Amino acid sequence: MPDDRPAKSNELTVVDLSEMLSAVRGQEWPLNEEQLQGPKSFRVAFGQEPIRLGPVEFRILLFLASRPYHPFTRHAIATAVSTDLYPLTEEAVDEHIDALRDQLGVLHDYVQSVPYIGYRFKA
After folding, report:
1. Percent of the chain predicted with pLDDT > 70
2. Best-predicted range by mean pLDDT (7-16, 21-30, 32-41, 83-92)
3. d(CA 33, CA 58)
4. Which of 15, 81, 92, 122 is deepest in the core (most CB within 10 A)?
């Protein structure tokens, strides 16, 4: 069921998270600057559950989902999703991953820690 609330001007609404994640598989990263510019927040839905993500968390989710089960280092994540507007350091990746997991709620286990490496997305 789509979220019928109108999106704010600085918000992107994606109705089906699972469909979006399937579409992003194989996406080349880092994206160019034009592709990285976008809304300040994202509202996605998985089934009937609305999920609101910040721009950095949204890009991390897309990056991890572009290669399911592939482990990425903190450096690779920071390099791929960092922009002039939202710079991301390796040291801040863990904080954003924690925020992403919190925002995903019951779907938090889609973002998995990989010991001694970093993180991966479970498809």
Report:
1. 60
2. 83-92
3. 16
4. 81
Closest CA to 29 of 8, 59, 68: 59
User: If phi over 0 gives left and psi between -120 and 50 gives alpha, with beta otherwise, what is residue 76?
Assistant: alpha
8 Å CB contact between 120 and 109: no
Q: For residue 96, what pLDDT is reported?
A: 96
What the block records as the tokens of 84 is: 């002039």
Fold held by 11-121:
Arc Repressor Mutant, subunit A (1.10.10)
DSSP labels for the chain?
----SPPPTTEEEES-HHHHHHHHTT--SSPPHHHH---SEEEEEETTEEEEE-HHHHHHHHHHHTSTT--EEHHHHHHHH--SSS---HHHHHHHHHHHHHHHGGGGGGEEEETTTEEEE--
Name the pTM for this structure. Answer: 0.71
Q: Tell which residue, 110, 116, 123, 1, has the closest CA to residue 57.
A: 110
